[in-house]
Amino acid sequence: MTATNAPAPAADADASGAPTAAATPARRRTPWRNPWGHPWFLEGFTWLYLVWSLVPIVIAVLFSFNNGRSQSTWQGFSWRWYFSDPVNSVLHNPQLHAAVIQTVRLSVLTTVIAVPLGVAFALGINRWHGPVPGTFNYLMILSYVIPELIFGVSMFFVFTTLFSTVHLGTTAEVLGLVTWNVSWPAIVVQARLVTLGRQYEEAAADLGANQFQVMRRVLLPLLAPAIFASAVLVFSGVIDDFVIVDLLSSSAGNTPMSVIIYSTQHGGNGGPALNALGSIMLAMSLIVVIIGYVAYRLLTRGERGSGLAALTTIAGEG
Amino acid sequence: MRNRKNAFWVALAAPGIIWLAVLFVVPVYAVLSIALGKLNQLYEAPVAVWNPLSWSSSNVINVWRDLFGSASFAGPVVVRTIVYVAVASLLSLVIGYPVAYFVARFAGRRKGLLLVLLIAPFWISYMMRMLAWIDLLSTGGYVNKALGWLGISPVNWLGGSSVTVVLGLVYGYIPYLILVLYAGLDRIDPALIEAGRDLGLGRARTFIHVTLPLSRQAILTGLLITVLPMLGDYFTNQMLSGAASTSMIGNLIQGQLGTPGLEAQGAVLSLLLLLVLLVPMVYYVIATNREATR
């Protein structure tokens, strides 16, 4: 290659279409060609998605404060649909009122039963080797991925035919929800056990601690963040659950909020009281999640890992 | 000593194992016994037959006739379900991938905020999210008002429109897909992408030859996590349309549950759905297990 045909390399680059870093300034300006530029299109797309994803919710919450029946024309601010209206507010409508209480009841009962059950299961399964624990570990993960409708249908049938002493209602709902949610603590705690390894327990055992002391003084404190995260997952999961409670509830007294919104909305206009009910659910989940996030950060103080990691753990990913 | 240690772990695992056996294995078997059981002609109630040796195929034959027979009414529902779910999950992927890609690779200091906003729908009740769209899409809602400004006459979105149902499914399940994609894309070593660039690949070709192959696992898992619940979904459809012309297999099963004489057929349909989904489910279980033990 001689100096006389200096333009040739540039022509080559053109032909291959490879936008090398040495490209001309004019080319660097076109964003697609410059591999190091900021992807403005992607950023715009992402914000557009977020607007689509979240603005409808914001509007729905706003209209729960609407001083009128409309869900699309703003008529001024009021607490009417929460408690001022003597008939149709969440506080005074017996059905809506009962739904709030039922949701709280189901969330508390399910969390109190499912978390200890799942944590013990995870510990046992992780340490007891053999075909039985292996099989049940797979079954547990299967219960996590099975479509909720199929699970709900099987629960419906088992409570209407085999265990018919358990009538549809709160007991059936709790039994169904615990089975559906027990995989959260089981999976989250097992993941934490894998990251921890065995060295802490072995050190404690070497220092003379017996099985129960190792459990109480070493394992449970180390597992506390995972146990806590799974409790948050179960609690907020039950608040938002729909299919199981829809199939297993039997009367107005044991119908939680999600089912009320569903059954009142389709087939008729439920009015802003439903938006109020939905906003209460939202606030409940939000409170649980914020408590969960703060406590999780406190529990994992001094460990590597960021707020992002805490966030994805509380969301059930990672 | 070794034995006592083992007994300790067995005792810990036992309650969970018993619980799963009684309230997960037995219920699934109950569906099987009802699907292959008989019908009490007097009460039109399904009779579970627990002994596999006396199972009958009458319910299955009935469902088979509904699905593939000459007067099939369930056949079109199944086809519609497949089309809806396929379109909705592909649409979710097309929308979700760029979003996950941006947040994983380019968000920089705003990553925390964006992640919170991406995860936010997880904490909002599904019913609340559907309710929000019902408000927007109603006859006098903001969507029709916006169309009015553009001179377009109001559209009856909630009266049995396939477009509404598919978009509702996308809206409902896309957050799960995005989070899985984000986790997968976030794990890709940036050095690999830079290497692609350094070796002269453009943005598009780096994406096709480096990023896309590395995120294949995340795409598969993400699609699975959206397709499985979509196939059992009856509430999105019921809330946003409620018309028979858009009903899916979930609506069919749910409708049969409360109907005397048809409950056993609901069991058969659930079982068929489970059978079809068993392969992807087992794949997912194995993939999760591999991930967890790595």
Layout of SSEs?
The complex is a heterodimer of chains A (318) and B (294).
Chain A: H1 7-16, H2 25-29, H3 40-63, H4 80-84, H5 94-127, H6 131-145, H7 148-162, H8 170-181, H9 183-196, H10 199-206, H11 211-240, H12 243-248, H13 257-265, H14 272-299, H15 307-314
Helix pairs in contact in A: 5-8, 5-9, 5-11, 6-9, 9-11, 10-11, 11-14, 13-14, 14-15
Chain B: H1 2-35, E1 38-40, E2 45-47, H2 58-68, H3 74-105, H4 111-123, H5 126-137, H6 142-149, H7 162-187, H8 190-198, H9 203-214, H10 216-231, H11 235-240, H12 249-257, H13 263-293
Antiparallel strand pairs in B: 1-2
Helix pairs in contact in B: 1-13, 2-3, 2-13, 3-7, 3-10, 4-7, 7-10, 8-9, 10-13, 12-13
Verbal overview:
Helices cover 70% and strands 0% of the residues of chain A. Chain A has 318 residues and is mainly alpha-helical. Chain B has 294 residues and is mainly α. Chain B has a domain at 75-257: MetI-like fold (Orthogonal Bundle). Chain B has helices spanning 2-35, 58-68, 74-105, 111-123, 126-137, 142-149, 162-187, 190-198, 203-214, 216-231, 235-240, 249-257, 263-293; strands at residues 38-40, 45-47. The longest helix of chain B has 34 residues, at 2-35. Classes of the chains: A mainly alpha (318), B mainly alpha (294). At the A-B interface, helix 3, helix 5, helix 6, helix 7 and helix 8 of A face helix 1, helix 3, helix 4, helix 5 and helix 7 of B.
